[in-house]
Amino acid sequence: MSRTKVMNPPVSRFEASPSPLQVYLRFEQGILGTFSIIAVLLIWQGLSTGVFADWLSPLLGDQGASKLWIKPIFISSPTRVVAKTGEMMASGELWEHLSSSGISFILGSTIAIVVGIPLGLAIGWYRKLRYALEPFLLAYNATPQVVFIPLMIIWTGTGMATRVLIIATVTFIPLTMSAWTAVKTADPRLLKVAKSFCSSDYQRFRDIILPTSIPFLLSGLRLGIGRAMVGVVVGEIYAATSGVGYLINVSGSSFQTDSVFVGIAMIALFGLLLTALINSIEKRYAKWRPSGAAK
Fold first, then answer.
1. 264 to each of 259, 268, 269, how far by Cα in Å?
2. Do 122 and 255 lie in a common domain?
3. Dihedral angle at the C-alpha atoms of 181, 184, 190, 191, nearest 10 degrees?
4. 92 within domain boundaries
5. 147 lies in the same domain as 37
6. Is the pLDDT of residue 14 over 50?
7. What is the pLDDT of residues 149-183, one digit of tens each?
8. Are 42 and 30 in contact (CB under 8 A)?
């Protein structure tokens, strides 16, 4: 018997092209995020320039509409902030502040990662070490780390060392706690099976603990970025003569609202970029993991 091969009809170019709804669903996150940012900027611009007050004055009256006009000294405006950013870039002032903050951020975060992650893994893996250090870590985690800033200034003075120490101090605790939690949530059945095959502590730690710890460590890094940003601003307010935090502090004291928003925008942009980097690493790890581990 001869087999007849069924041929599917060719798909036309118009049928193969995705519909607008499919395109929207594919890029929904980016589209909604972009529109929300644009909406906030337009509202901000309208409130700071009095556009809304002019539009609604026939309905609300001059006195009622004046409440929709916020003076630029309080909130500035997007156009003024962009102009001030360009001015500070051209003069080199912004680059000086960014370089100072960037160096202290990198050094402080590196110290926190190098100390916090191994410490958390060791505490979770070695029971006696956990019993010895757990009271101090819990007390430190429950205490606002900014209370130690006066002592740091007494110990190291004001300068780069103090800022790096402040950033490392406020950043290492979420890394440590995340690594500790990662070890505690490891599957005990896998550890028992590996131990029954006479695997060493190092092999169990390398083959079971570390792979299962990666999602927790990435979450800790995401939290640590936010803490490090706080450390940058607080450290430069108390113990610096340059940096984005210093720029925000001095500009706010002299009512230079444009410069304050420039500093805030730089901090927010830097934090978003680092968070996006962590998210991309997490997505790559999610693709690498076996399907059973991702559930």
1. 9, 6, 9
2. yes
3. 130
4. yes
5. no
6. no
7. 888 888 887 778 888 998 998 888 889 988 888 88
8. no
